[in-house]
Design goal:
By secondary structure, the protein is of the alpha+beta class. The protein has two domains: about 230 residues, Rossmann fold, CATH 3.40.50; about 130 residues, OB fold (Dihydrolipoamide Acetyltransferase, E2P) (Beta Barrel). Strands 6-7-8-3-9-10 form a six-stranded mixed sheet, with helices on both faces. A hairpin with a 2-residue loop joins β9 and β10. α2 packs parallel to α4 and α4 runs parallel beside α5. The protein is elongated.
Length: about 375
C-alpha cells in the first residue's frame, strides 16, 4: 500500500492540447479515490501519468513518498486494469492471472496459491481453464481484477473497468470490487464517467472538468455541498434543477423571486447572501426536494408546473414539468402521487435543502461560506 501524490501536474500533447492542468491531489494510503467527470476531461490521462504510461509535461508524482517521474511503469509497483481488460487471447484465465508473477520469476507453488486465492475472492475458480473468448464480459473483468490482485501492488489503478458491462454484471462486479478493496486496504484510484458508480464506491471523489480539479470531497459532501453549478448538475441522478430568479433581501424578508412565485429562504443564509441583493441567481433544488401540494391554494415556496413526461422507476416516478413556459424541472414523486401528462400541479420546494448559484461562470454556490470570500 502507498500514498500517491500529484503536485501541480500538467500534461500537454503536441505542444498545444492541454489534457491535464495544474493537477494537485493526494490519495491516502489505503484510500479508495474515484476520479469522475465527463468524457474528455482528462481522467484517463491522469491515470496513465500515475502509471508512467505518459510523462508529465510539468509537476511531480510521488508514490510511497518517492518521486517516480523518471521511474519506468514496471518499477512503480502498481497494477492497472484497463477499460478493455487487455487479456492475452491465447492464454487461459489461469495463465493470464499468473503472467506478471511468472515474469518476476515467482516460484511455481506460490503462483498457484496466489492465483487460486485471487480467483476465490472473485468467484472464478471454476473458470481458470477457459480462454477469454469463452468468458462473459463480467467474467473477463474478474480475471483482469484477479491479475491485478495477485501482484500485491502498492496501488490499483482502474480505468473504467465496469463501463462495458450490463446492469446486473456491473452491480455484481462493483460490489465485489468494493469488498476486495476493503479487505486488502490497497490504495485505489478508479476512473469513471458514471457519477452513480462513483458515489457507491468512493471514500472520496475528485470531480474533473476540462483537465482541472473542480472539487474533492466525500460523496455525501459533494451531493449536499457542491461548490458550483457543474458539480451540482453532475452529481446526483436525476440532476439538480436550476430555476432562474432574482434575490430579494429586506430587513425581514429573504427570498428568490421566480416570476410570480416567491421562494422564502432560511434566515441562516442571510449573512452569505446579503451582498447579492437584487442579483439574478439560479435556485438549485434536487428532484427529491420537490413534493406535490394537495391543496390548489397558492402559497409561498410553491411553484405551478405542468407535467410533460412521466418516467416510472418502481416505487417512484421522475416527472418532468414545464414551469412558466420557459423552464423545465424534474421531480421525483411517489408513484401513487404522479400526475398524468398535461396535468397542472403545485409543487412545494423544501427550502432547507436549496442552493443559490451565481449566474456567472463558474456558477459559484453562494450558499457555501467559501463563496462569499471568493
Amino acid at each position: 500500500m502507498a500514498r500517491i501524490e500529484l503536485k501541480n501536474v500538467t500534461k500537454v500533447f503536441d505542444g498545444s492540447v492541454t489534457a491535464v492542468s495544474d493537477f494537485t491531489l493526494t490519495v491516502d494510503d489505503g484510500e479508495f479515490m474515484v476520479i469522475v467527470g465527463p468524457s474528455g476531461c482528462g481522467k484517463t490521462t491522469t491515470l496513465r501519468l500515475i502509471a508512467g504510461l505518459e510523462k508529465a509535461t510539468s509537476g511531480t508524482i510521488c508514490i510511497a513518498g518517492k518521486p517516480v517521474d523518471n521511474v519506468s511503469p514496471r518499477d512503480r509497483d502498481i497494477a492497472m486494469v484497463f477499460q478493455d481488460c487487455a487479456l492475452y487471447p491465447h492464454m487461459n484465465a489461469f495463465r493470464n492471472i499468473a503472467f506478471a508473477l511468472k515474469m518476476r520469476k515467482v516460484p511455481r507453488s506460490q503462483i498457484i496459491r496466489r492465483v487460486k486465492n485471487a480467483a476465490s475472492m472473485l468467484g472464478i475458480e471454476n473458470l481458470l481453464h477457459r480462454k477469454p473468448a469463452a468468458l462473459s464480459g463480467g467474467q473477463r473483468r474478474r480475471v483482469a481484477l484477479a491479475r491485478a490482485i495477485v501482484r500485491k501492488p502498492n496501488a490499483f489503478l482502474l480505468d473504467e473497468p465496469l463501463s462495458s458491462l450490463d446492469v446486473t454484471q456491473r452491480t455484481s462486479v462493483r460490489t465485489e470490487l468494493k469488498a476486495i478493496q476493503q479487505k486488502l486496504h490497497t490504495t485505489t484510484i478508479h476512473v469513471t464517467h458514471d457519477q452513480a458508480e462513483a458515489m457507491k464506491l468512493a471514500d472520496r471523489i475528485c470531480v474533473m472538468r476540462a483537465g482541472k480539479i473542480v472539487q474533492i470531497a466525500p460523496p455525501l459532501q459533494l451531493y449536499d455541498k457542491p461548490v458550483n453549478r457543474f458539480v451540482a448538475g453532475f452529481i446526483g441522478s436525476p440532476a439538480m434543477n436550476f430555476l432562474p430568479g432574482r434575490l430579494e433581501i429586506t430587513p425581514d424578508h429573504l427570498a428568490v423571486i421566480l416570476g410570480e412565485d416567491t421562494i422564502k429562504l432560511p434566515q441562516r443564509l442571510r449573512p452569505l447572501l446579503l451582498c447579492f441583493n437584487n442579483s439574478q441567481v439560479l435556485l438549485g433544488v434536487r428532484p427529491g426536494h420537490l413534493s406535490p401540494v394537495e391543496s390548489q391554494d397558492k402559497k409561498d415556496n410553491t411553484i405551478t408546473a405542468v407535467a410533460t413526461l412521466v418516467e416510472p422507476t418502481g416505487a417512484a416516478a421522475d416527472v418532468h414539468f414545464a414551469v412558466q413556459s420557459t423552464t423545465e424541472l424534474v421531480a421525483r414523486l411517489d408513484i401513487r402521487k404522479k400526475p398524468d401528462v398535461g396535468d397542472k400541479m403545485l409543487l412545494r420546494i423544501d427550502t432547507e435543502n436549496v442552493h443559490i448559484f451565481s449566474c456567472e461562470e463558474p456558477g459559484e454556490n453562494l450558499t457555501l461560506p467559501a463563496a462569499k470570500s471568493s
